[in-house]
Amino acid sequence: MSPPAPNLTPSLAQRLAAADRRLRRLCLGLGALVALLFCLSLAIGPAPLALFGDLTGTGEQAALARAILLEIRLPRAALGLLIGAALGLSGAALQGLLRNPLAEPGLIGISATAALGAVAVFYFGLAGAFALALPLGGLAGAAAAVTLLYGLAGREASALTLILAGVAVTSLAGALTALALNLAPSDYAALEIVFWLLGALTDRSMTHLWLAGPFILAGCGLLLATARPLEALALGEDTARSLGVSLPRLRALAIGGTALAVGASVSVSGAIGFVGLIVPHLLRPLIGHRPAHLLPASALGGAALVQAADIAVRLIPTAQELKLGVLTALIGAPFFLHLLRQTRRAMR
Amino acid sequence: MSALLQASGLVLALDGRPVVRHADLALHPGDFVGLLGPNGAGKTTLLRALAGLLPPAAGTVVLDGRPVGDLPEARRARRLAYLPQGAECHWPLAVEALVALGRLPHRAPWASLAPADLATIEAAMRFTEVLDLAGRPVTQLSGGERARVLLARALAVDPAILLADEPVAGLDPGHQLDVMRLLGRRAEAGGAVLVVLHDLTLAARFCRRLVLMQEGRILADGPPAEVLTPDSLRLLYGIDAHIAVEADGLMVVPKGRV
Questions:
Q1: Looking at CA atoms only, how far is residue A260 from chain B in angstroms?
Q2: What residue of B is the nearest CA neighbor of A287?
Q3: A296 — pLDDT class (breaks 50, 70, 90)
Q4: In what order do the strands lie in the sheet with B192-196?
Q5: Does domain A76-346 bear CATH number 3.20.20.80?
């Protein structure tokens, strides 16, 4: 290897191309990590690995192995991937929209309200009436929350206003969910409601994947389309508009995309917090803080984090399997405190 | 010569409160116009309306022969750059990434920067003398450096019209002169530049035309020597000012309140 030439200032074109290359390399690396974790997620579970020696056979054991793999582990791994991507991506997009690194679907009450939507659907027995009721309930909850938050703390909101608005939205959703829990007709019903509060990917079936998957993918598509307007929005609303950005369109994309992606995710997995906070924060310095580059990187990073956490809850030897949402909260809350300390100077 | 941007009978309101009561203003190629007036006179509101960011309550702003609000957003964005007051960047972007944002209106969706884009970015950065700052996070720059980088962003649009709201506020005298010289060169190159200023001497020496604005009306519009008089300054700001005519321009020294 030749030593780097001293004092060689790269040209502007090289610098800008290097930024694109950095993003590509990061995405390739994260993509490989996601693929690896996906395979691990298929391989790890209570059933011993030896069971899966013969998957193609006609025997009872092979049929059992196939069933475990395709009906238990595959939906769990695939949902982990999709939901992680949805949470990471929506965190990055919301942070770009509100120009605030603390915006996160879980932290500012979007997940809690989506969970309330799903709980309401369940409570009133709509889930049994038609299958799509569950994701639609989550979607409606998430959409209501984002709209409310944008009304309370949109535009030039300080970090403090946003967090306070998030506290208000979370409290409201929490109170109504607690009401449903309080009035739950049976212990079984109460247990179901608790599922959405804790958040987990256990015992999710292919049905859940088919119910939520298309909505999540559509939401991610909308969120990825915010890349360029978010880039311009770094300079404020007026400058962004002067650069040809339509703010109503941007808001519709970001709010609609978050509602679809997070709403559908939460309706099948419950609230899994802090992913959208941790992932963009860790990745932002790696891609030069560019809001557009942060989107694909955070989607992959979120997918990796949720899958890794979901593997971890299977490996951590607790009497009851640790719930995924509990684990992410245990990691995320101290992380949030750390972030809050960092941004305290900016909070008036 | 036909005007690049023409405002006629402009009436502007913010939240139902009239801010600009009546304004006629035309910008031609090569114009370097200073917009003067006390705080709250409606200068920023007028600038935002000229930029197509605020729909007029009455009157029109015409760009390329069409009302600016009717132009497709991308087309307007390629013709006209707007540099707001106290402009800032919310993320610690690298200087060249920030300047590159000026090319957004010129790029097809998902297209990356073309060689022509890069050339324009580099030219804008050379023009404002910020090439050396490439690679630095914009949040770590001094006020003067940041102002020049933000100006480079606006110039990277390669606009026919540049509207800048107090671009020299908070800069030291040296950097104020730098920015004014840059804007003047931009106008000499055939662009139209409208700039909000509070420094009367700076305005008188650099701008070739001054527009005086008070309580939402335009009091005067003409060459500095005609427009800046003890009487007009008394009326405009409520100050007594000493105006000296030097060989290379006016010098205006506010002495006291009337």
A1: 23
A2: B93
A3: very high
A4: B66-67, B58-63, B5-14, B17-27, B217-222, B209-214, B32-36, B192-196, B161-165, B80-83
A5: no
